[in-house]
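no rush on this but wanted to send it before i forget. what follows is a protein written twice so to speak, once as letters and once as structure tokens for the fold. mainly i need to know what kind of three dimensional shape the backbone takes. thanks a lot i owe you, the record is right below.
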Amino acid sequence: MRVCLISTYELGHQPFALASPARWLADEGADVTCTDLAVECLDEAALAEAGLIAIHLSMHTATRIAAAAVPKIRAINPDAHLCFYGLYAPVNDAYLRETLGGQSVLGGEVEGELVRLYRHLAHGEPWDGGDGVALIKHRFKVPRREGLPSLDNYATLDPGDGSQVTVGYTEASRGCKHLCRHCPVVPVYNGRFFIVSREVVLEDCRRQIADGARHITFGDPDFFNGPGHALKLVEAFHGEFPEVTYDATIKVEHLHQHADKLARLRATGCLFVTTAVESVNDEVLAKLDKGHTRADFIAAVRAADAAGLTLSPTFIPFHPWATPEGYLDLLQLLAELDLIENVAPIQLSIRLLIPQGSRILELDDIHRYLDGFDAEKLSYRWSAGDPRADALQAEVRDAVQQGEREGAGRRAVFQRIWELAHAACGRTAPPLPVSHHTGGVPAMSEPWYCCAEPTEEQLAQV
């Protein structure tokens, strides 16, 4: 039976979440076709023959784009079993079934469940349920990347010298042991995480490096959920591929707690670490249950600097408790810490998304900011307690999108945002401090982010 696996958006990476289940399904005897709508069109011939169409929903943007694609998919093949899987699938179960016509919805460790679904359909048996979240540990397999667009179709890395490096992507663990209120991983994994065996990860890296990758992104929600596993992995990786660099995502809390391990990351080829700071206001950080404080973030920056490790902080600066003064405080701290070039401009415009199942809804004071659930946008509508913050967010968003269209550098976009924030506070913007960076900061060519609303351009590409 033909199976079509479809991805819509994976932050500029070749889709691991197609390659991994493709291996499992192919081993079961399925005729698997993978399509990544971020870089290619629908394969109409394959879709027309499919008995199972499974669409991966990794995040908010991917889900919104998928919703725009489903009518076209159904027009080509109205009879195939339509499955949705990924982090954003279980929390949007009702929408995916009632509005998009999904017949199965899977989350968590989905490979085994997709195989079980395939078996039922291939034998003409009705699907007997099993929908929802699977958190059963299984033996991971090396992803099957044959049939996916080549790596040169995806985002590249500027290591800081203006060159463009081909990037691969893999995962050394799945899920997360933390329970940050706003995180889309939490409603699915609820504090569970699963280690992928070192040899599976290394073999996936080997194959991508053979296909031209000279940098690997480890896309785990938190690379230091299992620091011992992570360090042994990168030491083996560096021993085999000393010229290949990598990046990873690590919580501020872990950067602070494991400051003594950061030099080992740098020594094994870590080019930068993405870290979800979200806010520099301790009251907001407590509401988000982030596990770190403003002081911890500053300490993590100092520790990374001491280790020669570049940080790439991410933020959710606009939320119900935001004020222009608080936003300006964030910008001032970034300038003080010489992080202007380290922060992708999109990070300074992101507005909190509150999907179904979010732990944000547990907060006693949140409901006074809410105005119902927007089924089309898959998020609760909310307004900031200070209306000036909402107005400022719209201005910052427009400035970021204009900067992206113009190809403006990070410092130039920050300058514009700096001026907008000061104006919102009734102040005149002083000159930005001079940067002490002696070279460029490593950055990916894909500027977007999983927790941002999709742009009109992204939706129009479907």
About this structure: The chain is about 35% helix and 20% strand. The first strand starts at residue 2 and ends at 7. The radius of gyration is 22 Å. The chain has two domains: 2-134, 151-460.
